[in-house]
User: Fold this.
Amino acid sequence: MVKNDAEDLAKKMREVSVAEFFEKNRHLLGYENLTKSLLTIIKELVDNSLDAANEAEITPTIKISIKQIKDNRFKIISEDNGPGMVEDKISYAFGKLLYGSKFHRLRQSRGTQGIGVSGAIMYSQLTTGKATKIISSTGKNKIHEIEMMIDVEKNEPKIISHNEKDNEKGWHGIKIIMEAEGRYTEGKQSILEYVRQTAVANPYAKIIFDNPNSKIVFEKVTNEVPVQPKEIKPHPYGIEIGIFRRMINKSNSRNIISLLTTDFSRVGRNSAIEICRISKIDHKRKPNTLTHDEIDRLHEGMKKVKLISPATDVLSPLGENLIKEGLKKEVKGEFFVSVTRPTAVYRGNPFLVEVGIAYGGDLKQEGSAQLIRLANKVPILYHQGDCATLESIIETDWRRYGFSQSSGSMPQGPLLFLIHFASVWVPYTSEGKQAIANYPDIVKEMKLGLQEAGRKLAIYVRQKNKLKEKMIRKQIFERYIPEIVDSINDLTGIDKKKLKEDLEFITKKNTKLEEEKENGK
Ligand SMILES: Nc1ncnc2c1ncn2[C@@H]1O[C@H](COP(=O)(O)OP(=O)(O)OP(=O)(O)O)[C@@H](O)[C@H]1O
Ligand SMILES: [Mg+2]
Assistant:
């Protein structure tokens, strides 16, 4: 006899809420240990504040405070001067997982999933049982103070209290107060490192970081707020059939031409007619009347028509100068090089790669190179082993540029790499947003950037080594001058002082000539 029959099993079946799923799998969101959990909370709060300020074109000032209240328990306060949030959205944005303003669009931003801050609030209540306080104002009459928790089984916000205050000073922004379990350290993968790298990648932001050990203020170093990234529509070449089907079914467009020209980028009226012709579908048809087969044909047809590549001016890179400045802040190096690659495309999504390398100086001579990773200006500190950035460095042949490297590993030497990946959609390997997936198009671009930077670095290193060799030769020659002077004097009787002066002159002249040759004079 079967122990559990289908009816018994059927009784046990029920829907799982997204919140329940992530509560059980909190490691997927970055909450697997105390140190990383505290970092994840701060990261989610700061990323949101920077995104909100950027979108509202406000120069961001962000305050973060972390105070230890007892063993492994911290009080966290974050405050920004962003646009704030309208009253009726607050509880959902903060109290419902997978709810946000960024998922359904293609635009370069730090957050995308709609899970970051609600995940942090869920972790807080899971480890302390306490509610989170959110204070928000859009700068108008009222300041809202909401204490809330998340009803995990329903994945819904649960409001504990809601008070309103007059907004006499016109304050706008969001302030969040929560408690959570964590551990504060200041090592390599720490909050301090995250904040420091964030300040480097966002030099127009002021970040005040009040931590258990000290209060550090990262002043903004420029008033230049970067150009706003633009939102784009998907490009027909990158759209996958499942998504295309959904777009068609949901579409209210009058006809296929209108759908193709308004919901996709780079499709003009003529291209739309051509797509329909190739797909053998009447372009006057209403999209939501298309059959399964017809949608497939249209999807195929879209890829056969020649279209302009996705828009490439939609991204906001750091720029070659800022990369060098950023690296200079990280390390006292001897030579810095940076490269911003042109925009490329993966799965129809525009992206660009920037590479920086710091060499020599304070960097350790021995051991493997180090790596700073940024995705849409957000430092990523964990899961380096799974990241396309590491794969690209490993797959680049650094011996060509004069560094030792065993196969499948980082080059050796005094090297610090920085790789910035900017895209309208960052393909993270998991919800924890700590590693970039290694799509071949992405790895290829990263490698091209690394090679370009590698070549520039190799020129410098080679020149430096040549010069070093010459200096050694000069020193050896100078060491023998007294002996040569004695011998020539013995043989010819020429005045020793004159001989010495002549030989020194020849050495100097030769070295100078060689130096001039080196410098291309
Ligand atoms: N400081 C803030 N100021 C204004 N709006 C905010 C702020 N923080 C969050 N939001 C809004 O709340 C939404 C939910 O935030 P959440 O961090 O959960 O998701 P996200 O940032 O969209 O994506 P991700 O999961 O990748 O972080 C955001 O999409 C944004 O609209
Ligand atoms: Mg977020």
